[in-house]
């Protein structure tokens, strides 16, 4: 087994796929939003002619995304065929949920390396998912959450790849701490990490709350100024609130 | 830490890491880690290695701090 083994490279392929999806989903999210808004702003009538104004970045991201996905899956299937031909005893299934190809268990040490790698991924998910759940409470654009989830997938694959790579480089250290002193040190280190994660969450929460309060305050001030102008012009002030997390929207309509 | 004589006996029998790895059914890297004492093989693997190097397993592997010939 060496670094050119397709099973070793699989996490890198997964990372590339995540990057492609990152590009593709930018356009997808934008177009889905447009669809639910009845393509407002896309079609307009100028001098009795329908003018279409496609959102350029979103359209480009969809086109590039589709091309990259097609190229990716062609290259991916070719690599799988080549690998399965050269390694009939370690065949890889392109689409599987039961035994992903990147989980290598050719011998007992590789099994241990894979177990340690998956343990690291587990610890990573345990730390990052509560943070993600917390972030879901905020009214960010859906694309932000897609980016975050794809980044988590990138890190997950990177952890797997780096661990297997250490084994192939000969720099893997499988020793577990055995003495009480080492266990104590490890526990202290974990407590420090946990404290750091909790304080990061608290800092992020406070930052978001402060930013939101500033936004609400400035929105309120600007609405007050606009409302006064509107009423001076004899028009009607309309204020709408789309939901708990959205700022109040202001519009000034003619009094007819 | 588990000490061993795998490297010495492998060389004496004229085996490369790849040769012995193929004979016992592991990868070359795993043999390298066993030789360096970085990985403690299972009893089954230790027995297989000992068999191919024509030596009793307790003469091939021993715990650090214990005499090899105890």
TrEMBL record, chain A:
The chain crosses the membrane at residues 12-32, 52-76, 121-138, 144-162, 193-214. This is Magnesium-transporting ATPase (P-type). Keywords: Membrane, Transmembrane, Transmembrane helix. It comes from Cytobacillus purgationiresistens. The lineage of its organism: Bacteria, Bacillati, Bacillota, Bacilli, Bacillales.
TrEMBL record, chain B:
InterPro entries: Cro/C1-type_HTH, Lambda_DNA-bd_dom_sf. It holds the Pfam family HTH_3. Residues 6-60 form the HTH cro/C1-type domain. It comes from the Bacteria. Transmembrane segments: none annotated. Keywords: DNA-binding. PROSITE patterns: HTH_CROC1 (PS50943). PANTHER family: DNA-BIDING PHAGE PROTEIN (PTHR46558:SF4), TRACRIPTIONAL REGULATORY PROTEIN-RELATED-RELATED (PTHR46558). This is Transcriptional regulator. It comes from Cytobacillus purgationiresistens.
């Amino acid at each position: 087994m060496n670094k050119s083994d397709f099973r070793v490279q699989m996490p890198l392929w997964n990372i590339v796929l995540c990057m492609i999806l990152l590009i593709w989903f930018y356009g997808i999210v934008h177009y889905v939003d447009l669809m639910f808004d009845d393509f407002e702003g896309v079609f307009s009538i100028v001098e009795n002619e329908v003018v279409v104004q496609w959102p350029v970045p979103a359209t480009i991201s969809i086109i590039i995304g589709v091309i990259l996905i097609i190229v990716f899956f062609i290259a991916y299937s070719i690599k799988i065929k080549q690998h399965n031909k050269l390694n009939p005893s370690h065949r890889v299934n392109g689409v599987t949920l039961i035994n992903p190809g990147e989980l290598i268990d050719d011998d007992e040490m590789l099994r241990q390396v894979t177990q340690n790698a998956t343990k690291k991924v587990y610890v990573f998910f345990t730390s990052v998912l509560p943070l993600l759940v917390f972030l879901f409470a905020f009214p960010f654009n859906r694309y932000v959450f897609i980016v975050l989830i794809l980044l988590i997938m990138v890190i997950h694959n990177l952890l797997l790849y780096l661990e297997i790579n250490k084994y192939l480089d000969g720099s893997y250290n499988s020793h577990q701490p055995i003495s009480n002193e080492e266990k104590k040190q490890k526990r202290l280190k974990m407590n420090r990490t946990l404290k750091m994660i909790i304080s990061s969450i608290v800092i992020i929460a406070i930052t978001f709350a402060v930013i939101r309060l500033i936004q609400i305050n400035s929105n309120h001030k600007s609405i007050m100024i606009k409302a006064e102008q509107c009423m001076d012009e004899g028009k009607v002030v309309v204020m709408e609130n789309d939901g708990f997390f959205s700022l109040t929207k202001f519009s000034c309509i003619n009094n007819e | 830490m588990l000490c061993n004589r795998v490297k010495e006996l492998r060389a004496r029998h004229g085996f490369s890491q790849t040769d012995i790895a193929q004979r016992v059914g592991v990868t070359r890297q795993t043999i390298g880690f066993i030789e360096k004492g970085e990985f403690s093989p299972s009893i089954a693997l230790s027995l297989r290695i000992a068999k191919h190097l024509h030596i009793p397993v307790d003469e091939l592997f021993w715990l650090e701090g214990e005499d090899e010939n105890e």
